[in-house]
Each structure stands twice: as structure tokens, then as C-alpha cells.
Amino acid sequence: MNQFKPPLSSQPPSQDRFGLRLSVPPSLPHYISPLSPIAFLLRAALIFPNKAAIIHPEKGIRFTYVEWAARCLSLAFAIKNTANWKKGDRVAIIAPNTPMILESYYGILAAGGIATPLNIRNNEREIAYVLDHSGASVILVDEEFAHLVPEQLPSNVTVIISKDTGGKDGIDSDQYESFLHTGRQEWEKAEKQEIDRWGKKGKRGWELIEAPKDENTPCCLCYTSGTTGRPKGVLTSHRGSYLAACANAFEFQLTSDSVYLWVLPAFHAAGWTFPWAVTAALGTHYIIRKVDNDLIWNALRDHGVTHYCAAPTVNIGLVNHPKAQRLPQTVRVAVAASAPTAELLQSLENLNVIPVHCYGQTENYGPFVKRYMEPSWSKLAVQDRAQLIARQGHGFLVSDEVRVIKTGKENDSIKDERDLIDVEADGQEVGEIIMRGNLAMLEYYNDKVATEKTVKHGWLHTGDLAVRHPGGEVHIRDRQKDIIISGGENISSLAVEDEIASHEAVLEGCVVARPHEKWGEVGHAFIVLKQGRKLTAEELRQYCRSRMSKFAVPGYIDFVDALPKTSTGKVQKNVLRENLRQAKL
Amino acid sequence: MNQFKPPLSSQPPSQDRFGLRLSVPPSLPHYISPLSPIAFLLRAALIFPNKAAIIHPEKGIRFTYVEWAARCLSLAFAIKNTANWKKGDRVAIIAPNTPMILESYYGILAAGGIATPLNIRNNEREIAYVLDHSGASVILVDEEFAHLVPEQLPSNVTVIISKDTGGKDGIDSDQYESFLHTGRQEWEKAEKQEIDRWGKKGKRGWELIEAPKDENTPCCLCYTSGTTGRPKGVLTSHRGSYLAACANAFEFQLTSDSVYLWVLPAFHAAGWTFPWAVTAALGTHYIIRKVDNDLIWNALRDHGVTHYCAAPTVNIGLVNHPKAQRLPQTVRVAVAASAPTAELLQSLENLNVIPVHCYGQTENYGPFVKRYMEPSWSKLAVQDRAQLIARQGHGFLVSDEVRVIKTGKENDSIKDERDLIDVEADGQEVGEIIMRGNLAMLEYYNDKVATEKTVKHGWLHTGDLAVRHPGGEVHIRDRQKDIIISGGENISSLAVEDEIASHEAVLEGCVVARPHEKWGEVGHAFIVLKQGRKLTAEELRQYCRSRMSKFAVPGYIDFVDALPKTSTGKVQKNVLRENLRQAKL
Fold first, then answer.
1. What is the distance in angstroms between the Cα of A227 and the nearest Cα belonging to chain B?
2. pTM (two decimals)
3. Cβ separation of B436 and A42 shorter than 8 Å?
4. Do A398 and B255 touch (CB under 8 A)?
5. Which residues of B touch A422 (CB under 8 A)?
6. Which residues of B touch A374 (CB under 8 A)?
7. How many CB pairs under 8 A join A and B?
8. Under DSSP, is residue A463 helix (H, G, I), strand (E, B) or coil?
9. What are the strands, taking DSSP E only, across A322-458?
């Protein structure tokens, strides 16, 4: 690892001054700097230039902060140099956890673009849909996932394939590295023009980039398959990303001593803002391509990892690994999707790993709610503690109050904000979680209808059902009924049902979540066949595999005569779920 | 202390719902909540209602967060109820560290006013000047300092005197408490109107307060005697205060386990934003009226204090106190004004107190620069470590880069931002510290001339001279030449000279800083008498005492025949300082 020499694109300039600041739009008053997460990288490179920003052990890559700042600037100029580039254009990223995806959250933003990370677990059709919907004009793709890029693309789209070499084998063998190299040349050209014209006063390095004048400028577009059949693009802003990153750094106690292990996919909700939060805290990114428990334990034991984010399923794998041992350093793990069980909590604590239970959605920059611990809990039995920790909790620093409002009849007469009535804080009354403020997305991109369904009366409706306890903390009681959460992935049952219904032998089908030890939940499909038609579960599964992400294919398939329905003809999924529960499957 | 029962004004409402959120101006989009530090209090009251927000041991007062939220809301309504109150009005506070001054940073802001804390070490004349200049329409004054309030005040000014009882002796004997009581009545009246009209949908408690639509709305006016004779009013905003508080909470690692001891006067630069930062972190304020080493050691030893801010002089007193002992908890102390010596650093570390060296001015919300430690320093000898820590360092989280620009000749031709040229980062070239962005004040209140002198070409000029080391960190080499910093107080030598010059026997005088073991610096005056006139040092000191704050009275007075001057007639203070240095006084 010590032998690694970064290529030119990733080296600070030889001049004495790098210019580690953004230019400020001249019309802004002296007391405003637009909030933008790009600033965190420049600050880190200024304060700790020689500290490891990224360690990528599988590939023997290590970039210091000043190298990384050079690399991200090279990326920004390379993107600006693509055909017909203009501000606000989307750049898609199709990659596992690699340096490239982390630097995209700086380089694309600095180019004035919108970072559009794709879910590498999606299939070709879903990827094609998102590329088309986002209108991405540049695609950065990791070689391992290059097959996901459609063969037919509009002629103006630039595709750049990365071999994840970090340039150590020279730039010619890795398209992404030579792309960065062109960026470096562009940046040096621009610098030279400045110096020719202005001499000493010429802008250098990052000064060539102007901060967005309006901090509400969009910066990320993250697709979610959260609530309806088609993926929706969550558009977020520089301001929101900046504030969310500050909040995550604060709430998870990231410091300059922190080493953050990339277990969470960095494409998920912009990596929950951790590409920025870790850097804001001047910490180190330790990034691995795969969730490999052996690699993770090496990182925990030998590389001083202090933080990671992971769903309970991942943590179960970790505590049961042969290398598991009590760690000398305290490690904080942000756990979302579901709360750790008492058993898992105990196992983690034995290893000196402290779970922080949090909640959020792509629509609110990932986690924005956290369960705040009380000192008195340390005296409780682990079962009792686990029960208390299971509640999702309260809004973060920089978050507004998270509300739970009455639904049902009372909801029909809502005319304005005043009609949003909170449920009783009694731990009993179930309502819908709503939120607003700086951690709310801007909109669903190019989807006015979906935006208007979600943002109503000034509040973002999450669709998640919850109670509020007397302490005011939010406690989710029922996932939004159509969602199946499997291995941390949101599966839209509607989307799966649409595909199933497209099979010529199927009359109708319905998919509900079924608890699963390993994956949390898997889909259980109930199928009614057309009269006289035949179909086996395996044939249907085969059909599904060709049309959806692997994780979305129902784990269980039952053929039934009819589906339970309401008088108005809606399928009663609650009845099906209850049947499953009673059958103790 | 357990017996303390808060009065009605400081009790949460008996209704089931307090409404611990601000109303949002209806014209704002769902993704914007104006950044305002008021939000921190409401969040703390929601998450930890029954946790101690304020402990005030000398008076046996203790408010929980929900009580404190009620109290601050009562204050807001009491202020709104004063004669002719309108948004943007100034409310002066003349108080030592007490619950009142901390609550003023919430209650005044919530009333739409501008909190204007006065320096209780100023004399009557200075106080009168500031009251007049700010045009404060309400004055909140602690009984001990009531003599500072001028007898002659405009008829529309409301003066409220606090006995710092917290209402425990009933509200009639303490004007401030009965003021709060009227506020509570006003708030309940407003709530009743809402409920009469809207029923369940009626706004409650804090919902009766609307957040400022524009987050750049001024919220504090802190007078500094920093750079010229007359105090100048530093006007700061809700947005800046919010961001500065987040940064301070993060940089000093405040958490919900933190207990912050109020050693720093809360009137200094809005208490360096700690009235908000501690609450943002959900910590506890431990507040004492006087810097009493005995009280401080009790707090450190027996009340779990984890943080405080104090100049080196205060810390010297603490380490030499008979009660000094190694603490079980790590305590972080923010040290500004001057760096701790090697001896002090060692003494503090022996006690488990970790100094964090920081730098800032009232003009940038108190500290905004910090010396970031590197892990390798722990291996260095304490002398070497002290030398490294002595550098002021780099900008905080949320701060932009702190620049040091060339002064002198090159400064004369400055036409625009581009002409601001950075000094070499060589640890040698001295220049002026400039900064801009979210931690820069709005302006000097009602002082266009001073504002234009300080804010030039889009940057706030601090007047402090510094070098930048190759690591980019800022290192102050010379205080702005006219300033004497004594016991943490800025003394304008120009202001003192003006007063001295007003003595009929004095021809001219000049005051420079002289190093002082206890106070850091004291003023040393060089006086030329008018021909044939006589004056003793004691007589002149007496004259000064009647005209300025005690700390500003020169500690040393020399009568000389003439002052060293430049060819253009300017007094060469550098020569006088050099003389003092050579004389090893």
C-alpha cells in the first residue's frame, strides 16, 4: 500500500498555492457563503493535507486529502469538458463502494451537475428506466457493472468505465483514470489562462469553481423504489446535504480520529450523506467493494475503524463471524430499517460496538431521526434496553420536530396546514409520520404528480405509520403497507405485482412482506391463475428473475383460488399478512 | 435544591400539548426552515423535558428543559407586551451569569427582538452610551448592577430588575419574575383565543411564535470596544448564530452528557454562542454569578462539569487552587485571547483538563478558528506541544477558510476582491486576517463608516496581524496594535488616550500593552504634561477611574518629555513597546 503513487490527476499542483476554496458569486453579501458540501473536502485538504482521506485496501489504493481534492477537481473539469455539458445536467454513477463513487459526490457537484447514483442491484430494465428518466448525459460505471449499461443510448451520452485502479497501472488502461487526466489538463489550462491574464492574482485550483449562488440548487438525484411501481427520483439540495452531513457528523460523534467503514452502499440515499459527514469531521473513509465479513473484521481489528452503518442482518453476520472479538476501540454503528434485537444488542455490546438506532428515508437525506439514550438505561436488563432502543426516536440536530398525524376520516377534510392534527402521544394512536424543513427533499424529479401526493400542505408525508409515546418519540408500527424491506432493499410490492400480472397465465397476484430470519422480510406472492391455465412456482420465479432485481423476486409463491377483497374491490393485504402471522410461517 | 418549585411562568402548560415548535411563515417552501437558534431549546424540551437545563447553585435554582422552554416563552410574551413593542426592537441585558441572561438569548429572539447584552464591567458613562446608541426599549437588569442604569431614560423605555430568585420567593418580590408572569398570562390569553376559534386546531405554546421568515434577520447586538474609541455594535443574525452554535457544539464535542460551566461572561459576544450550543447538544448549563475558584472546583469535582471557556489567567488561578485535583472525567476548556504556556498546559493535563486553543472576535460570533491537534503530538515534550498549540489554527466546521492578506503598499491599490493577495505560507510574512461567510457579522449597527472600514471587497477585515505556517494554520504575531487585552477584556488604547487627553494638565498621552503575569497585559501610559503643570500618577489614575472601566485604567504611568514620533507626526507605539521589552519590565 505504501508503494501506491497517485497519477497526475490526483496530485496537488506543483505551485506553492492550490487555492483550496470556492469562488464566491460576487453578488452575495459578505455574511453569506452558500452552504455546499463541497466545502468540507477543501477544508479537510487545508487542515490535514497529508492525512488518509480514502483507504481502499482490496486495491491497495490510498489517497491523502490533498490528493483527493486534486482528484475531485480533475473529475469536475473532466465532466465540464464532456459534450454539450451545462449546469444542472445529471451524471449517473453505477458502482459498488469505490473511491469513484465517493469522489462523484464532490466532482459532479463541483461541475455544477447533479449526482445520480444508481442501485447496482437493479436489473438492466430498471437501470435503463432510471437513465432515461434522469436524462443523464454522463455515466460513470464500474467495470464489474458495465453490463448494466444499455447498449442503446442517446448519442450525446458519455460513458466512462472505471477499473478501480486508482491510476496505479497508468492511465491508459483505465478509462476513468484517463478521464480524470483530461480534467487535470483542463484545469491546468484554465489556471494558465488566469495567470497569463492576472499574474499573481490569477485564480488557482478550486478557486476556478464558483459556489452555487443559490444554496437550494439541486445536487443529488437518488432513485427510490419506495412507494409505487416506478422508481422515483428524489432531488436534494446543496443546503440540505450540507446540513444533513453536519447533523450526521454530530449525532454519530464523528471526529478527526474517526475511521468510517463503508458497509452501507454509497449509492443508497447519497450514502446517507456520509461521503460528506466523514470528511466534514476530518475523518478517514475506509472503503471496500463488497460486504465481506472477513474484510470487515480485518478493518475493525487492524485498521482502527470507529464507525459504520449497517442493517441488523449485516450485524448478525458480523457478531457470528469466527474473527469476532472484543475491540479495544468503541465502534458506533448506525442501524436503520429495523431495530437490533436484545440478543443482537448484547452481542454487539460485548464486542464494544454501540448501535445507534436511527430512521429516515431517501426523501429526507437518509437518517434524520435517532433514538436518544438516557443514562439511566445502562442499569436496565438488555431485554428492556432493547425494547426502549427499538423506538425510532426524535429528530436530529438540524431536523425539525417529527410529527405523527391522524389519518383516516379526519384526513379527508384537510384543507390547510392547520388541519394536520397530531395523534395523541399515548403510544397507542397510529398515524402517519410527516416532516418538513431543511432535511426534506426538494421534489420528485420530473414527477409533479408524485410530488403533490407526498408534499401536501407544506409537509412531506412519509407514508410510514407510527405512534408517539408520552416522551414524544416516534415509534413505527407498520411500514407503509406496500413495502417489503429485504436485506435493506425497499421492494415495491406494487411493482412486483405489475410484473407478475404481465404473465399470460396470471389472473391477478398480490405480494406481501413475510418475516425472514436472514433478510428481515421477503415477498410472499399469492397468485390466482386464469381459468384452465397452469404454472408452477418455479416457472413464475424464472419469469420474475428476467424482469426484476434478484432481491425483489418473491421468496414464497402460493397459488390460491381468490384474494380477499374489500367491498370496493381492494385487495386486503392486511388479511393476507394476518394469515401468514397466524400460520407462524 | 430539590425543594425548588418553579413559578407558574416557568411551568409547562397543564394541557396535554405544549406545541414545542415554531410556526413556519406560510410562504416558505416545505424544504426550508429558517435557521434560528430558538429551535435548539424547543428540541431539547421535546427530547429531554425533565433533564436539568440550568443549574444555578448559588441561588438553589434548577430548571428542567420543559420548564425553561415555558420560562423563555413567558419572557417572549412579556417583551411583546411592553409599550409600543415592535419587531426588531432592542432589549438590553445588564447581568452577570444568571438564568436571566441565558433565557434572554431565547426570549428576546422569540419576541422578534434583538438581544443586546452589555458589559457589566463598563462604567455608567459607557453603559449610557450603549443604551442610547442601541436605542433599547427594554432593559433587563440584575439588581447588583442596577446602579449602572442611567436615571434619565427616554420615557418609552421599560426597565425590569431581577433579583435572581427564579421565583422561589414568589413573584411579587422580584420584578423580573412578575414580568415573566405577565408574559405567561399573555401567552395563555393568546392560546385561549386560538382554541376558542379553532378548537383542537388552535395553536398552543410555542406555535404562537412564528420563525423569522428571513433567517438573516438580526438577533443579537453585542458591543465591542475592540478597535476604536467608541464601542461599536456588532449585529449578528439568526442564521449565523445557528450555524456558529452547531460548530461550537461539534468542535468542542458537546454531547447530551455534557455539563457546561459558565465561567465566560454570557454577555461576551453572546456567550460565544454557548447559550445555544450547549442546548443544541442537549447538555446542561451550570451557571455561577462570579468567577469564584472555590465554586468552580466544587462544580468540577462534584457536579460532573465537562466543559468551560476561560482565558489563561482564569486557568492559572484554577490549577493553583488548594482544591485542585485530577478529575475522573475529561474536561475540555476552550482557551482564547492567548495560548496556554507549557507550564499551564502541563498543569491542566495533569488535572485531566484538555485545553482547546481557539480564536475569534465578536465580529465573527466568538471563536471560529481552532487549533486542530495531530495524534503524533502526544509523543512530543510538553514545551514542543505548547509551541504547536500556540498557533491559532484553522477555521471551524461551517467557517470558510481564514485568510491572511498582504498589507502595506500592496494594500493601497486594492480595487476588488481579486486584489486581496494572500501572504506566503512561510511562517514569516505578516499580514492581516480576513474572513467572510456565515460566521461574519451583518454590520456595525447604525455605523456605516465603521462597517465600510471593516467590510471591504466582500471580506471582513479583523485588524489582527498574523502569519500562515506552511501547514496553512494562522498564527497571530501582533495584536491589532491599539488593543490591550487585560484579563480577557479588550481595552482600546485610543479610548483611554482620549480620556487622558481630556485632563487639563495633559499635553498628550499614549498607552501601550505591557505584559502582565496575572492579567496577560495591562496598559502602560506615557504622558507629556503641559508646560508648567504638575500631576502625579495617582491623581491621573483617580481621574481615569471616574471615566472608564476599572480594568481599562493604566496599570503603569510614566511622565516623559516627549513621545517618539514618525516624520508625519504619528506616535511610534512600536518603539515604546520595544523599549518596555528591552527594559524587561
1. 20
2. 0.87
3. no
4. no
5. 17
6. 48
7. 142
8. strand
9. 331-335, 353-361, 366-370, 394-395, 403-405, 431-435, 443-444, 455-456
CATH class of A484-582: alpha beta
Would you place residue A456 in the very low, low, confident or very high pLDDT band (cuts 50, 70, 90)?
A: very high
CA distance B411 to chain A (A): 13
Shortest Cα distance, chain B CAs vs residue A399, angstroms:
9
Among A16, A255, A455, whose Cβ lies nearest the Cβ of B30? A455
Among B32, B373, B400, beta carbon nearest to A21: B400
Domain formed by B8-47+65-237, architecture: 3-Layer(aba) Sandwich (3.40)
> Is 60 exceeded by the pLDDT of residue B567?
no
CA distances from A480 to A462, A513, B301 (A): 8, 11, 50
Domain residue ranges of chain A, discontinuous segments joined by +: 402-433+454-469, 484-582
Chain B residues inside the 8 Å CB shell of A28: 458
Q: Are A500 and A506 in contact (CB under 8 A)?
A: yes
Mutate to test the interface with A, among B31, B363, B434 (most CBs of A within 10 A): B31
Q: Around B561, how many Cα atoms within 13 Å sit in the side-chain half-sphere?
A: 0
Across the interface, which of B374, B397, B421 has its CB nearest the CB of A201? B421
- Residue A501 three-state SS: helix
Distance CA B186, CA B448 (A): 38
Name the residue among B198, B240, B398 with its Cβ closest to that of A31. Answer: B240
Query: What pLDDT shows up at residue A410?
Result: 52
Residue B97 has pLDDT above 90, yes or no: yes
* Torsional class of A580: left (φ above 0), alpha (ψ -120 to 50), beta (otherwise): alpha
pLDDT tens digits along B50-64: 999 999 999 999 999
Asked if A27 contacts B458 with a C-beta cutoff of 8 angstroms, the reply is: no
Residue B114, min C-alpha distance to chain A (Å): 18
Residue B397 and residue B251 in contact, taking contact as beta carbons nearer than 8 Å: yes
Please, are residues A288 and A295 in contact by the beta-carbon 8 Å criterion? yes
Contact by Cβ (8 Å): A362, A222: yes
Probe site for chain A from B30, B32, B42, B394 (most A CB atoms < 10 A): B30
- Own/partner contacts of A81-87, CB < 8 Å, gap of 24 or more, are A81/A182, A81/A183, A81/A186, A82/A137, A82/A138, A82/A158, A83/A137, A83/A156, A83/A158, A84/A137, A84/A156, A85/A111, A85/A113, A85/A137, A85/A138, A86/A112, A87/A112, A87/A113
Q: What is the dihedral of CA B83, B85, B91, B97, to 10 degrees?
A: 70
Residue A227 has pLDDT above 50, yes or no: no
Say whether B372 and A48 touch across the interface (CB within 8 A). Answer: yes
Fold of B483-582: GMP Synthetase; Chain A, domain 3 (3.30.300)
Residue B229's pLDDT is 59
Q: Return the beta strands (E) in A163-276 as ranges.
A: 218-224, 232-237, 259-262
Neighbours of B349 (CB within 10 A): 15
Fold observed for domain B400-480: Luciferase; domain 3 (2.30.38)
Q: Which of A233-237, A435-439, A556-560, B77-81 has the lowest mean pLDDT?
A: A556-560
Q: What pLDDT is stored for residue A228 in this prediction?
A: 47
pLDDT at A289 over 70: yes
Mean pLDDT of all residues in chain A?
91
Phi, psi of A499 (to 5 degrees): -65, -45
In this prediction, residues A490-501 reach a mean pLDDT of 78
pLDDT attached to residue A584? 64
A198 CB neighbours in chain B (<8 A) are: 418
Q: What is the pLDDT of residues B248-292, one digit of tens each?
A: 999 999 999 999 999 999 999 999 999 999 999 999 999 999 989
Interhelix angle A342-350/A312-319, nearest 10 degrees: 50
Q: Which residues from B are below 8 Å from A440, CB to CB?
A: 30-31
